[in-house]
Amino acid sequence: MSSALNLPEAADVDALRAQIAGAVATAADPGYDALRASWNLTFDQRPALVVEAASADDVVAALAFARDRGLAVAVQSTGHGAAHTADGGLLVRTGRLLDVEVDPATRTARIGAGARWSDVLPHVAPHGLAPLVGSSPNVGVVGYTLLGGLGHFSRKHGLAVDSVRAIDVVLPDATRLRVTSESEPDLFWALRGGASNFGAVVALELALIEAPALFGGMVMYPGERATETIAAYADWIATVPEEVSSAICVLRIPPLPIVPEPLRGRTVTVVSACVEADPARAQELLAPIRALGEPVADMMRPIEIGGLGEVVMDPVDPMPAAGHSDVVAGLTPEVQALLAGTAVGEQPFSMVEVRHLGGALARAGVDGPIARPAGDALFHVETVAPPGPAGEPVRAALRGLADALAPHVVGGPLPSFLGELEPLTPARLAQAYAPEALPRLAALKHRYDPDDRFRFGRPIAQEWAG
Ligand SMILES: Cc1cc2nc3c(=O)[nH]c(=O)nc-3n(C[C@H](O)[C@H](O)[C@H](O)COP(=O)(O)OP(=O)(O)OC[C@H]3O[C@@H](n4cnc5c(N)ncnc54)[C@H](O)[C@@H]3O)c2cc1C
Question: Which of ligand 1's atoms lies nearest the C-alpha of 92?
């Protein structure tokens, strides 16, 4: 090691390169910038080296290298939820682990740690099956699932983390294990929420549901009518069964030439929904929310499983995203007023959303460390905030909105929704886990990663040991 910078020597890196089928890059290599890049451009990370694994064996070799040299390790696929810059460590990128195998008999999919939902849906749809997918087809399945996974079927089928059947993981000591609730109950419990604190996952085995008939999409109303639209939505969600998962958001559509004229540069209030029912029943359930005066656009329709990625229009291209989320008791008049207020005047928030929780989300689910939502709604803000001074006014406005929300907060968000606004202090991170899970997480972290080398992502704090 060259101790001043704690970087591996070039000869060491060459030795690693000789064992790896994928790519290895340090700052001296031309591929370094592409391999270290996150989807969230806020995180301009500078790892000592990046290993882009082409196989599980590559991950084992990378972690053995890190173990022998005492390097800290980060694991990412897309960088949608990077949360910390992996500075000075070894960054394992899993984006090339794209294998997806579906076993229709057991309704299970084995999904490589580089797959996004858009890679998985074409494999499961022909079998009449569906995974517990979220709003964006572009997020990594492993990061989404192990950090909670709130999706289109959540009110009926719960969090995606509850669909995990087995986890193929390389531990910090570079041993590879297939972890199930029977074979390794502690690790199975801890990985489903603790994720990269306990190793680098190379594949997940997930339970699939029988694909239901689906109907939904988005209906948009003028932002000027936000107050009435939000009030009507609050009344409507109080009546719907668990088959209806939905959200309402105030969306500021950018004035870009690629956006069609009726939407370009407009502020709209959008209700998005995914209903598990035949079209006639679904349209009956959705009727109240599609009849709130003249819509700007009504894009509700039958949805194929393969088209689940298009139910809402999440951003695709990399961006400097800053977000904040918390759970509130429900869409109370006070929370309605906060949401409607974001449609007024010039404000820097790209999207302010309330997702309807409840249903299966309010039930216990499979035993694991993640805190089940303490209320009926998730308040979630997402916006574009350039790093450094240029983004400071946006972050200040976001902090203001988070402060105004604070009196209504009843619990923290899922680990997947922790956001980028505030540093992930142990106190903030702890809000995403059940209080009684914290000492067990800390004890297991100490057992499986005693040197705390997997300290990026959402790091478990030893102070939780109590
Ligand atoms: C546009 C957008 C839409 C979203 N929609 C939803 C949604 O509908 N529901 C929801 O619940 N969340 C949603 N999220 C949040 C998203 O699920 C998290 O950001 C998730 O962590 C992304 O995973 P990733 O692998 O793509 O990101 P990465 O940044 O690559 O990984 C994030 C973290 O996941 C863990 N991780 C990733 N790969 C591995 C691995 N192989 N082994 C161990 N740990 C690993 C690590 O802790 C890592 O730090 C959304 C995010 C964005 C940006």
Answer: 41
User: Is the pTM here over 0.85, yes or no?
Assistant: yes
Higher-confidence residue of 264 and 114: namely 114
CA dihedral 139→145→148→153, nearest 10 degrees, is 80
Residue 428 is encoded by which pair of tokens?
A: 């903030």
Residues with CB under 6 A from ligand 1: 75-83, 94, 113, 134-136, 139-140, 142-144, 146-151, 195-196, 200-201, 314-315, 414, 416, 457-458
Buried b (16+ CB within 10 A) or exposed e, 59-87: bbbbbbbbbebebbbbbbbbbbbbbbbbb
Tens digits of residue pLDDT in 53-108: 999 999 999 999 999 999 999 999 998 887 778 899 999 999 999 999 999 999 99
| Residue among 42, 76, 205 whose CB has most ligand 1 atoms within 8 A, to mutate | 76
- If you classify domain 100-210 with CATH, what class do you get? alpha beta
Which atom number of ligand 1 is nearest to the Cα of residue 40? 53
Share of the chain above pLDDT 70, in %: 98
142-151, 420-429, 451-460: which is most confident:
142-151
pLDDT at 156 over 50: yes
State the pLDDT at residue 4.
Answer: 37
Query: Nearest C-alpha to atom 17 of ligand 1 is from which residue?
Result: 144
CB 448 within 8 A of CB 171: yes
Q: Whose CA is nearest to atom 35 of ligand 1?
A: 143
For the segment 164-179, the average pLDDT, to the nearest whole number, is: 98
Q: Quick one: CATH architecture of 214-423?
A: 3-Layer(aba) Sandwich (3.40)
Query: Is 10-93 CATH 3.30.43.10?
Result: yes
Write out the H or E segment, with its range, that includes residue 204: strand 200-207
Counting every residue, how long is the chain?
A: 466
User: How far, in Å, from the CA of 7 to the mean position of ligand 1?
Assistant: 28
User: Ligand 1 center to residue 147 CA distance, Å?
Assistant: 7
Average pLDDT value over all residues in the chain: 94
- DSSP strand pairing (129-130 vs 108-112): unpaired
Q: Whose CA is nearest to atom 23 of ligand 1?
A: 143
| Residue 126 token pair | 């022909």
What is the distance in A from the centroid of ligand 1 to the CA of 237?
Answer: 27
- Distance in Å, CA 2 to ligand 1 centroid: 33
Domain boundaries, the chain: 10-93, 100-210, 214-423
Residue 362, pLDDT > 60, answer yes
